[in-house]
Amino acid sequence: MSLVKAESNSEKQNVASYTRESTVSDDYISADAIPDGGVRAWLVILGVYVIPHPYDAYTNAYGVYNDFYVREYLVKTQTSSQISWIGSVQLFLVLSAGLVSGRAFDAGYFYHLMIGGALLFEFCLFMISISKPEQYYQLFLAQGLGMGIAIGVMYIPAIGIIAHYFQRRRALAIGFATAGSAVGGAIHPIMLNAWFHGSVGFHSGVKASAGLTGGMMLIAILLMKPRYPKNTRKAISTVQSFRIFLRDLPYVIMILGTVLTLAGLYYPIFYLQLKAIENGITSHLAFYTIAVLNAASAVGRVLPNLFVYRFGAFNVIIPCVFLTSLLVFCNLAIDNVAGTMIFAILYGFFSGSYASVLPAMVGSTAETDAEIGARLGVCFTFTVGLGGLIGTPIAGALLSTTFQWWRPTLFSGICVFSGASCFTATRFLLARRRNTNVL
């Protein structure tokens, strides 16, 4: 017992030391006069605006590929569940690679990460462009594993560099920068569908996409230049963070909620276009469903954040996730163009709200600012990635080759609803602990 107590005290001392040294580091950064504007700073924001376009073409817009693989490219040898593993593994690696890339970025390896990730990204795209029909392993290796690692390596440094130039106006800067993510998620599905199903064809379309994204990433890397402040921070290890945070019951329940929510959240996004076509909607209209969803997601990532500071992250995210679960169930009754487009708009808005407010919700569970980064790292690496990994393959297996839509819809809706319930429980526990309703 004494050994456990001593170990616990040691861990608390590590956290306390980390908090003190982080405060010193933050004071140094303030004294170093972060510009909070200027030509150089806004050129960096422009670079961050450009770089998300390739990401969303191959994460949020994966439904375009999923539809093509299920109906044409892998239809003879693979089930929808097996095909969905490509997108889910990619999503898992995008979310989980931040554990490594975040530490490397802090250590000063920004250009190593960005250039290496961009080269791997382009290499994987060209591998997809020379793949053969019905060769599942080629697509899984290139698009699932390779591109997942490439995007994950670049994502954290591309967002983290904003903190080098903005402090007081950081929220505004992040809003401008991440707008590129929404634009990319809306434009790329339209282009990919036009190329894959038009005169260009799949292989040439992927090559065209590689050329476009390669040029955009080159421009972005040239625009972005890190300003590393003097770092006096002594971070606790990931294992120590994990052990400390698992003793915090509200945090553990919230983590469970993120796993359940992510397990169900991406099923409508991955399968919306396929379901529209199976319902008899013409392909010309169905090809716009994912673009509409991502465009609505752009609005959802901005508006709810305006209320977070006043009402609290949990008070904003809980109704959004409950409404998202309700929309999943409603999707079962949709079988026409008007219903599909209305669903795409509403689901895009509320699911985008969840994605946008999630970091603030995780951060609100921290006792000090020094814990926020570690709590986000544990959440995204060990849990959010897991939910994204297992959710869509399970939904694909439930769908089966006969397209039994009610089964994956029920699974997805229950998962998201359960996640919202976990967030509600976490809010209740934190409100009682802190004696406040603004959470």
From TrEMBL:
Residues 42-439 form the Major facilitator superfamily (MFS) profile domain. Pfam families: MFS_1. Keywords: Membrane, Transmembrane, Transmembrane helix. GO terms for molecular function: transmembrane transporter activity. It is a multi-pass membrane protein. The chain crosses the membrane at residues 83-102, 109-130, 136-159, 171-196, 208-228, 249-269, 281-299, 311-334, 340-362, 374-398, 410-430. GO terms for cellular component: membrane. InterPro entries: MFS, MFS_dom, MFS_trans_sf, Proton-linked_MCT. Gene3D superfamilies: MFS general substrate transporter like domains (1.20.1250.20). It comes from the Eukaryota. It is found in: Membrane. Belongs to the major facilitator superfamily. Monocarboxylate porter (TC 2.A.1.13) family. This is Major facilitator superfamily (MFS) profile domain-containing protein. It comes from Hypholoma sublateritium (strain FD-334 SS-4).
